[in-house]
Amino acid sequence: MTRVKLLEVKELKISFASQNAVITAVNGISFHVYKGETLGIVGESGCGKSITSLSIMRLLPKDTALIEGSIQFCGQEVLMLPECEMHNIRGNQISMIFQEPMTSLNPVHTIGKQIDEVILLHLKLSGKEARILTLDMLKKVGIPRPEAIVKDYPYQLSGGMRQRVMIAMSLVCSPGLLIADEPTTALDVTIQAQILDLMRLMRKEMGASIIMVTHDLGVVAEMCERVLVMYAGQIVEEAEVVSLFANPKHPYTVGLMKSIPQLNKSVSRLVPIPGQVPPFSNMPPGCRFAPRCLQVMNKCRNENPSLLTVQDGHNCRCWLYENGGGLGG
Fold first, then answer.
1. Which of these, 4, 67, 183, 315, has the minimum number of CB atoms within 10 Å of its CB?
2. Alpha-carbon distances, residue 24 vs 21, 31, 141, 300 (angstroms)
3. Sheet (strand 76-77) strand order
4. Of 153, 328, 310, 175, nearest in space to 236 by CA
């Protein structure tokens, strides 16, 4: 059966103007999301994951951000839409769960008023009907006593409750695409599991596609069907989740896997990736991972590889695979 692409991003390049130069944070990435699919975007902090998700929502600052390429949602070119049309899509057809709910929720308005506002903006309902829908959505996301919670302010709720409120707000208009930017960061493991279970349930009930932006490979393994690994503003590996975990190709992905604690192995120390993600203002001339790579070659230091297909549905940006070679497997 042919799968329908809900979102298609082509050669996306995002740059920011500073006083001295133009800094490129995302450099020519391409990917797609099918209807009903959960796609993971994984990588360390500073790899361009959140900037990519904000560009899909058209939430980057207009005065400093330069976006090139194409972002098509349901066949419409998002980057060319007038702001009034984008305003109707944002929060309605495409919604986002932000990384930190305490800073994303308005501290001077009650929970109920903030969710009501989203409903009244996008759906043709009365204030009374909006409040009924708000209460129903809060119940669906597992918030107890919603009649009381709607009168509370964000600071009165725990981190897990605020995250549930963010999910309720993002799903109340039944969007086709949900972007979740680190939705379980700073939550304890019990609440993390509850939030992930909730998102799976919402996807099943509403049929929404999800982009899961995270640094947590455990979340990717649990939630996603396909995954993109980003490093320094580029996609360095993309594959189905099962293929990626069974046989990671890029040295960066291998390094991420080795840095995960595993209960079934008696290893006393984790193996960290040496060095740090390079700043966008000072990228190495060749492969961007070369300064940290344990298998670096001379060619890697001078030439940046393209994304190569190493097997069906599995692509990797690495010179090790130039002639069908690689890390084994």
1. 4
2. 10, 18, 38, 20
3. 22-34, 5-17, 65-73, 76-77
4. 310
For residues 1 and 99, give the distance between their C-alpha atoms in angstroms, rounded to a whole number: 35
pLDDT at position 328: 43
Query: Is residue 74 within 8 Å of 6, Cβ to Cβ?
Result: yes
301 neighbors 285 (Cβ within 8 angstroms): yes
pLDDT tens sequence across 145-167: 999 999 999 999 988 889 889 98
**Partners of 230 in the beta sheet?**
235
Mean pLDDT of 72-77: 95
Residue 189 tokens, joined: 């493991």
Q: Which two tokens stand for residue 226?
A: 């396909």
What backbone phi and psi angles, to 5 degrees, belong to 77? -80, 105
Residue with tokens 């979340």: 219
Query: Which of these, 151, 146, 154, 147, lies nearest to 105 by C-alpha position?
Result: 154
Summarize pLDDT for 219-271 with one digit per residue, the tens: 899 999 999 999 999 999 999 999 999 999 999 999 998 887 776 666 557 78
Q: How far apart are CA 253 and CA 226, in angstroms?
A: 14
Q: Rg of the Cα trace of the chain? A: 21
CB atoms closer than 10 angstroms to residue 145: 10
